[in-house]
Design goal:
The model has no long low-confidence stretch (mean pLDDT about 90). Helix content is about 30%, strand content about 25%. By secondary structure, it is α+β, with helices and mostly antiparallel strands. The protein has one domain. It starts with 16 loop residues before the first strand and ends in a 9-residue tail after the last strand. Strands 1, 2, 3, 4, 5, 8, 9, 10 and 11 form a nine-stranded mixed sheet that branches. Helix 2 packs across helix 3.
Length: about 230
């Protein structure tokens, strides 16, 4: 279930468009299971994920000198927090296609902030938070630590192109160990507004996606990527 947190910044407009770029197998897993996968925070490629900037770390070290559990708590949090990443953009992103799909195959789920909130309602076990990632200079800028989620809502400026919106959950109070991550219940029809097929894919691939979606009982609007539109002369 989506839970509002006054400390976490989120786009005010519920119609803000967000995207998830993924391969066909991961997409089918969502449709077949009715669940969305959230990766454990320390399993991301970015080794800084869930850590603090240098100014913040120096302050935390001083606090932790006589309170070692204080620092250990933040280290353990990385194993208890799971994340689903979305890209905020009014239009498709060529860079996102390149990074998250392979072999000219894959697709993109188009949704909105409002749809994400509503789609999380079927999940009654784990509380979900939605936040906008802040991009900062980790050598100079400060990350607040008065909320356990703050380390997971900041990234280095090198990742600004991601324009990331995150769905975040912390399973600490459930006494649950995460391996690669966590699957949560979602309302698929609410989550997905439209599907875009990879701009370099063949026609047979688009037909395959359409047939699979129809056989599974869904009727999403499915389009070929706008990046492959006909050239007008």
């Amino acid at each position: 279930m989506y839970v509002s947190n006054p400390n976490i910044r989120i786009p005010e407009n519920p119609d803000t468009i967000v995207w998830k770029y993924l391969d066909l197998s991961k997409f089918l897993d969502i449709l077949l299971s009715g669940k969305m996968f959230m990766s454990r925070s320390d399993k991301f490629e970015d080794q800084y994920e869930g850590t603090f900037s240098e100014p913040t770390y120096e302050e935390i070290k001083k606090i932790a000198e006589n309170n070692r559990p204080f620092l250990n708590n933040y280290k353990l949090n990385r194993e208890k927090v799971s994340i689903s990443s979305w890209h905020a953009n009014e239009y498709e992103s060529f860079a996102m296609w390149q990074i998250f799909t392979k072999n000219n195959e894959g697709l993109a789920i188009q949704s909105t902030i409002g749809r994400l909130k509503e789609a999380l309602e079927p999940e009654r076990t784990f509380e979900q938070y939605i936040g906008e990632v802040n991009y900062i200079d980790y050598k100079k800028e400060y990350i607040p630590f008065d909320d356990d989620f703050f380390p997971f809502l900041f990234k280095r400026k090198s990742f600004q192109y991601e324009r990331e919106i995150r769905i975040i959950t912390n399973v600490s109070k459930h006494n649950l160990s995460l391996n690669e991550g966590l699957k949560i219940n979602v309302d698929i029809n609410t989550l997905i507004e439209k599907i875009y097929i990879h701009p370099k894919s063949e026609n047979w691939y688009k037909k395959l996606v359409i047939e699979l979606v129809e056989k599974l009982g869904f009727d999403f609007e499915i389009e070929k990527s706008d990046l492959e539109s006909d050239i007008l002369i």
